[in-house]
Amino acid sequence: MIRLALLTASTLVLLAPAAAKDPGGEAYMIRMLVCEGPDAKMEVYLPQSVVFGRDGKARALDRAVLGYYTLDLTAANKGKMLEPVRVSLSADRKTVIVDQYTRRLPPTRVPLAGGTVDFDKRFGTAAKCGPFQAQE
């Protein structure tokens, strides 16, 4: 009985660090970009810790960060897909670059103030995007 308790306790101790590293379990995501096209809606989410500094003020993306991109095809009865993306700002800080690297699509460049862009050729064409939420 004591051996079983010790084995269980040591297993929990070994698994605890792995769970702490899971970004999905500890990260709060914030919607930073909303786009709507004729066939679908798209959204980009970033971790709260990346968007806001310790002082609570919005900060610029100094480097590419991992976030999530949603493609909402609910109107076509296909659901809402969620995929990881790399998000960064252009060198001139006027454009948000959304890299859908898992699907090997070319990066989408969205003006910081918003505009019409193409995410992909199937569902994400002519998407009207609002402003990126953490503008400088």
What does this structure look like?
This protein has 136 residues and is α+β, with helices and mostly antiparallel strands. It has one domain. It contains 3 helices and 8 strands. The protein has an 8-stranded antiparallel sheet with strand order 6-5-4-3-2-1-8-7. The radius of gyration is 19 Å and the shape is globular.
Number of domains: 1
| Shape assignment | globular
- What is the rounded distance between the termini? 60 Å
**How much helix is in the residues?**
10-25%
Q: What is the string of SSEs from the N terminus onward?
A: HHEEHEEEEEE
Which structural category do the helix and sheet elements fall into? alpha+beta
Task: Summarize this entry quickly.
The chain is an alpha+beta fold and 136 residues long.
Salient structural properties:
136 residues, alpha+beta, 8 strands, disordered N terminus
Topology, element by element:
Blueprint: H1 2-20, H2 23-26, E1 29-36, E2 41-47, H3 48-51, E3 65-72, E4 80-89, E5 95-99, E6 108-111, E7 115-117, E8 127-129
Antiparallel strand pairs: 1-2, 1-8, 2-3, 3-4, 4-5, 5-6, 7-8
